[in-house]
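// run 5 | inverse folding | seed 20
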């Protein structure tokens, strides 16, 4: 009897293995699945830095300048919801060290500001506004603190972890805890105006910090190189055309582990086929050129068309889109930001309002075991994790959609059942045209979500998906067919042109020597009243982008004075054109730009500009 029971159990287990496809590679956790289903969220930057008109705060701002008299968290959160975003990540503390909640860990916090007479809690306001809007909430607390007197010592690490404990226990359930690699450098450090460097691989003791997340916020994903979700490696907002959710972090300089800021990010956009971890890409990008509000960028807000394109290059490549929002000094989103978000949300709704597969007859060239459990009908039901599967030895197959009447579309959506891993490596999309099959699209990695934007809108009564390459049997869970607007008009703010820079056709290069490659002197040919200068780093050479600068001006080319100096914050991650507004307009015929990188006068320069008063 015992032998018979063992034999029966083995036979049942064997049959079970044959019924379902064997999972392939590393798999996502439940936290990962929830994160994938969100698809997009926003990251909100708002500190004294906003009132200083800087991109990164230095840590020396007087808390009294932080007084947003019209602050409305609900206005900001509702604008994000109108854009179709599902969550809010609030920057509770940026590198300037100013805590936006009444923390016990540092006196440099919101209780010292005049906002709400020092009794406010901005983290709480955003958490409540997110809940009211039906959106999920997360926080970012910068590990680098340019104000804390103990930064660089063990005492600060203790305070930092206590900050995380406060944030993880007092504001409800979080969907994400956000960390980055900006650590160490110039700062105020409690009055000590100096540069402090730390060993990022050991200083924070990240393993202990991650345990705080797992213990206090077990349902949250960790955004970090060694967390659950990886940085895509750029701040342009898009993953690579082929992007794997699996990833093997590669540390720099022979380090034993890859920690925030210490890894080879050139691999991040595409991930790693058959990587060690399920670590999908977060594609972060600000709505404006910078992460903080600057009035001179009011007409440079990304348009709905640009956001729609970013959506396809992030969410449409298996990642999530993290869009940076920046309230102004009133504590509100500017009207242009609100307008762009609303229009983008309306485009998303219009595009995905009708899934044309609901009208189609669907069939597949192979169904696993001829079992209805894996039939092609699973591709068009409402369950994201039911799936069409093929027999173990079938790694190439076709799905056919047929309509009684021709349909018009330009977007194809595909999803795998990622509970079984990321399997498909290549496919093609064909339509029937004049009695012949015509290929109109293709894709490589599929994963949690793949959007294929066809080069032109097509009209047909038959659509074919051909799976061309996969190392194992197929497990495709969704096919969607949609029509996006053929054109997206520019919003009102994009049609308004600001004053252009001074014409550079008559400029002459006066000085640029190999000994000082970051120093350039320009003769503009005549004197102008200049209110601002611009610097564009070399494209693709971010390692040599100027991290700090000095601008000198002269009327006669002999007598010079320095009119501006400072740092280009975050330029290596976000190498956009930098605008430096002078304290007052200056009469200028000659100007000299001195760009420094790591303290040395050596930097890449793609372009310099000057703007008249």
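// decoded
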């Amino acid at each position: 009897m015992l032998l018979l029971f063992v034999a029966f159990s083995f036979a049942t287990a064997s049959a079970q293995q044959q019924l379902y496809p064997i999972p392939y590679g590393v798999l996502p956790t439940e936290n990962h699945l929830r994160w994938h289903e969100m698809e997009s969220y926003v990251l909100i930057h708002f500190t004294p830095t906003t009132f200083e008109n800087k991109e990164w705060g230095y840590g020396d701002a007087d808390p009294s300048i932080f007084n947003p008299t019209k602050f409305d968290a609900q206005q900001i959160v509702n604008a994000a919801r109108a854009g179709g975003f599902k969550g809010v990540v609030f920057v509770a503390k940026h590198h300037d060290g100013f805590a936006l909640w009444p923390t016990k860990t540092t006196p440099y916090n919101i209780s010292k500001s005049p906002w709400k007479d020092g009794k406010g809690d901005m983290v709480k306001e955003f958490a409540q506004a997110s809940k009211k809007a039906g959106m999920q909430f997360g926080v970012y607390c910068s590990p680098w603190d340019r104000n804390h007197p103990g930064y660089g010592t063990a005492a600060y690490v203790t305070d930092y972890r206590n900050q995380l404990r406060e944030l993880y226990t007092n504001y409800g359930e979080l969907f994400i805890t956000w960390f980055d690699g900006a650590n160490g450098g110039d700062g105020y450090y409690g009055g000590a105006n100096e540069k402090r460097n730390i060993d990022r691989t050991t200083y924070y003791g990240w393993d202990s910090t991650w345990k705080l997340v797992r213990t206090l916020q077990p349902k949250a994903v960790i955004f970090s190189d060694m967390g659950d979700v990886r940085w895509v490696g750029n701040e342009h907002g898009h993953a690579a055309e082929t992007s794997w959710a699996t990833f093997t972090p590669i540390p720099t300089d022979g380090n034993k582990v890859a920690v925030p800021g210490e890894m080879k990010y050139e691999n991040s956009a595409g991930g790693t086929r058959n990587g060690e971890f399920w670590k999908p890409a977060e594609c972060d990008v600000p709505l404006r050129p910078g992460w903080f509000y600057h009035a001179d960028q009011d007409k440079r807000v990304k348009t709905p068309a640009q956001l729609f394109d970013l959506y396809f290059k992030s969410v449409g490549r298996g990642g999530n889109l993290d869009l940076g929002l920046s309230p102004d000094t009133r504590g509100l989103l500017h009207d242009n930001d609100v307008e762009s978000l609303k229009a983008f949300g309306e485009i998303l709704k219009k595009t995905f309002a009708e899934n044309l597969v609901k009208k189609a007859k669907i069939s597949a060239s192979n169904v696993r075991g001829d079992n209805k459990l894996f039939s092609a009908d699973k591709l068009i039901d409402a369950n994201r994790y039911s799936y069409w599967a093929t027999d173990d030895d079938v790694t190439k197959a076709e799905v056919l959609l047929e309509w009684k009447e021709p349909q018009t579309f330009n977007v194809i959506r595909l999803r795998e059942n990622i509970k079984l891993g990321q399997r498909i490596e290549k496919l093609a999309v064909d339509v029937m045209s004049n009695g012949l099959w015509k290929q109109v699209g293709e894709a490589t990695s599929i994963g949690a979500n793949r959007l294929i934007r066809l080069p032109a809108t097509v009209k047909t009564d038959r659509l074919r998906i051909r799976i061309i390459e996969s190392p194992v049997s197929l497990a495709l869970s969704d096919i969607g067919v949609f029509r996006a607007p053929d054109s997206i008009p520019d919003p009102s703010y994009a049609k308004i042109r600001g004053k252009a820079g001074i014409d550079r056709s008559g400029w002459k290069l006066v000085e640029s020597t190999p000994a000082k490659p970051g120093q350039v002197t320009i003769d503009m040919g005549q004197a102008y009243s200049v209110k601002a200068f611009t610097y564009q780093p070399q494209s693709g050479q971010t390692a040599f982008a100027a991290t700090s600068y000095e601008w000198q001006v002269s009327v006669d080319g002999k007598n010079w004075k320095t009119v501006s100096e400072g740092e280009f914050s975050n330029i290596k991650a976000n190498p956009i054109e930098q605008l430096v507004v002078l304290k007052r307009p200056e009469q200028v015929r000659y100007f000299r730009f001195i760009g420094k990188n790591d303290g040395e006068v050596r930097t890449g320069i793609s372009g310099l500009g000057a703007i008249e008063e």
